[in-house]
Design brief:
Strand order of the largest sheet: 3-2-4-1-10-9-11-14
Number of domains: 2
Largest sheet: 8 strands, antiparallel
CATH class of the largest domain: Alpha Beta
Bound molecules: 5-amino-5-deoxy-1-O-phosphono-D-mannitol
Shape: globular
CATH topology of the largest domain: Rossmann fold
Number of strands: 26
Number of helices: 19
Structural class: alpha/beta
């Protein structure tokens, strides 16, 4: 969480810092700040709230200069206040620092610093880093740029936890220092200046190339050149310069009111992209360039483990049902934050897939690293092929969903489920899935984007349903088999966008406790397509109706049984059972969106959340 942008070069830094921060708001938007070197003095501007508040603050109190650092915050330590907004200064006031990450030993470090006379200006963990570096620098004889690098190295060796930092010192002119451990940071290389950014998308259009800092690296740059080294003095990994053209471009809302709405409606296209070049028609199978393993090796995968958080976990769970159905390969799904600390057995023949839209989620990355350490092959399924998970895994699948700006994951979910379905097809075809069956599945997949477009035509119906139920205080979501993860996803969408309390369960779990929640004012949303368990779902719907609970059902076109029984029905086109999650989730995404709008919520930036969760 938190986004960093830095600039040093020939131009005024401020426009780059502000626009870059705007592009990073998906990483947090509690407060924002910038430090700019203005005629040899660091000037800091801060504002509580979105980056737009900082823009206003700088309009009222202008500042300019040819180097600067900036930050958009998602609070971890210390409330959302002006004092806690970054940048933070050192004791001399000459050094400013921005930080993304968590300093785990901040209490001990703070006590030590206080015992040496430091008086903290904030409650943040970050301020211990600025003070440690400043203290080391001031204590050194060497007041040069090299001296600051040495001071930062010395200070960072005392810090436990995660960080990406940007540092500016007013005695050193146009010069930035950066370091990374656990949180992402890139250097952007341009003609008229150089950049720091948590994500290259923040500096797209300005830098022509970029370099990702590797774990444990420190870098320093001026407007023309940069150097990288190990924080501990070790040699850095070879520097890989990447072309900016390949980094995701920052999106615009186009004709839509919100990014979430736009991203929901982009799904026919994002799903087409996910399939492009990956279906082999004559063999009735799928292939992925990022999983280049021989058929013999792939046949040795006896178990798959999928790990992820939030929506990515829900997609993994849908994938478990689908892959086991298509390929008979056992799949286990693990919530990354639990998996990373569990002493779970890891049999030979196990391949582990880390699912993450951003490819930066701290828990998912940590779980993957732990598995890699234990020697199992790891694969990333990410929407950013340059992300840390993509780079550190042994291979993987690019979701190709295009940048997802809305904090609520929508198109990445359907792309994840589709990619897992194709993985199931590929593995199935190496085992017992016949050629004719493979071809049938392939032709169903090819029709999917059009079915998704057709499903999205329910938008207006869903908007009316949203209006009718928006005042409800809680919702239940129920589904069976691969539509149980859809229930989880629908519940997650609604709670994060509209702050309404939701829960999701397999439909049959109703009578094991959930049914106690049913009353006249608690809508139950059943995902009940015409699949082989339709009748079972119907019985569960009857049970809710018998207790006067309102029921909204997501069913299959042509279904009049649901229409007779339920209060409201949204129908999706018929398709193969294992593909239904990609269709049934769409009305639920729309429902969350429309309820959020109806309640006046900030649907693209819901309270307390951030798009990319880079802290534990
Ligand atoms: O980038 P990731 O897919 O790893 O993110 C995981 C979760 O933080 C994310 O899916 C979150 O649950 C979404 N905001 C849900 O809409």
């Amino acid at each position: 969480m938190c986004g960093i942008v830095g600039y040093v070069g020939d131009s005024d830094a401020v426009p780059f810092l502000l626009e870059g921060l705007g592009r990073l708001e998906y990483r947090g938007y509690d407060s924002a700040g910038a430090a700019v070197l203005n005629h040899g003095k660091i000037e800091i501007r801060k504002a509580v709230g979105h980056v737009s508040s900082l823009v206003e603050e700088i309009k009222s109190h202008p500042v300019s200069g040819t180097s600067g650092i900036s930050h958009t915050r998602w609070a971890t330590h210390g409330g959302v206040t002006l004092e806690n907004a970054h940048p933070h200064r050192d004791a001399s006031g000459k050094l400013a620092l921005v930080h993304n990450g968590v300093v785990e030993n901040h209490k001990d470090l703070r006590t030590e610093l206080e015992s040496r006379g430091h008086v903290f200006a904030s409650q943040t963990d970050t301020e211990v880093i600025s003070r440690l570096i400043g203290e080391a620098f001031d204590g050194h004889g060497d007041k040069s740029r090299d001296g600051l690098v040495e001071a930062a190295r010395e200070a960072l060796q005392q810090v436990r936890g995660t960080y990406a930092i940007g540092v500016l010192h007013e005695d050193l002119g146009d010069f930035l220092l950066a370091a990374r451990r656990g949180s992402p940071l890139a250097l952007g290389l341009g003609d008229g200046g150089q950049f720091l950014a948590s994500d290259p998308a923040a500096i797209a259009g300005w830098a022509s190339n970029f370099v990702y800092l590797n774990e444990g690296e420190i870098a320093w740059l001026d407007g023309k050149k940069f150097e990288v080294a190990g924080i501990d003095g070790s040699a850095p990994a070879p520097v890989v310069v990447r072309s900016m053209e390949k980094a995701a471009k920052a999106g615009t809302k186009g004709k839509f009111e919100h990014f979430m709405q736009k991203e929901i409606h982009e799904q026919p296209e994002s799903l087409r992209e996910a399939m492009r070049g990956r279906l082999i028609a004559d063999q009735g199978t799928a292939c992925f360039h990022g999983i280049e393993r021989s058929p013999e090796e792939l046949r040795q995968w006896e178990t798959l483990i999928f790990t992820g958080c939030g929506t990515s976990f829900n997609a993994a769970l849908a994938g478990e049902y689908i892959i086991e159905f298509l390929s008979r390969v056992p799949v286990e799904c693990e919530i990354a934050s639990e998996f990373r600390y569990r002493n779970s057995p890891l049999e030979m023949g196990t391949a582990v897939f880390a699912l993450s839209q951003s490819g930066e989620t701290a828990d998912t990355l940590a779980a993957m690293r732990e598995i890699k350490r234990r020697g199992a092959p790891t694969f990333g399924i990410c929407n950013n092929p340059f992300s840390t998970i993509s780079r550190e895994s042994d291979g993987g699948i690019d979701l190709r969903a295009g940048q997802e700006v809305g904090v609520a994951a929508t198109k990445s979910f359907t792309s994840q489920v589709l990619v897992l379905t194709m993985l199931g097809l590929m593995l199935g075809r190496m085992r017992d899935l016949r050629h004719t069956e493979g071809k049938k599945i392939l032709s169903a997949l090819e029709k999917l984007p059009d079915l998704v477009a057709e499903t999205l035509e329910v938008d207006e119906v869903v908007r009316r349903i949203a209006k009718k139920y928006a005042a409800s205080e809680s919702f239940l979501f129920l589904g069976r088999q691969a539509n149980f993860p859809v229930a989880l996803e629908g519940a997650l969408k609604l709670k994060e966008i509209s702050y309404i309390s939701t829960c999701a369960h397999p439909s049959a779990e109703l009578k094991h406790g959930v049914i106690a929640l049913v009353n006249e004012s608690t809508p139950s949303i059943f995902i009940a397509p015409r699949d082989e368990l339709f009748e079972k779902n119907l019985s569960n719907i009857e049970e809710v109706k018998a207790r006067n609970g309102p029921v909204i059902a997501v069913g299959t076109q042509g279904d009049d049984v649901l229409a007779d029984l339920c209060d409201d029905v949204v129908l999706v086109p018929a398709c193969e059972d294992f593909l239904t999650p990609i269709l049934t989730v769409l009305p639920l995404q729309l429902l969350a969106y429309h309820i959020g709008v109806e309640l006046g919520c900030d649907v693209d930036k819901p309270r307390n959340l951030a798009k990319s969760v880079t802290v534990e």
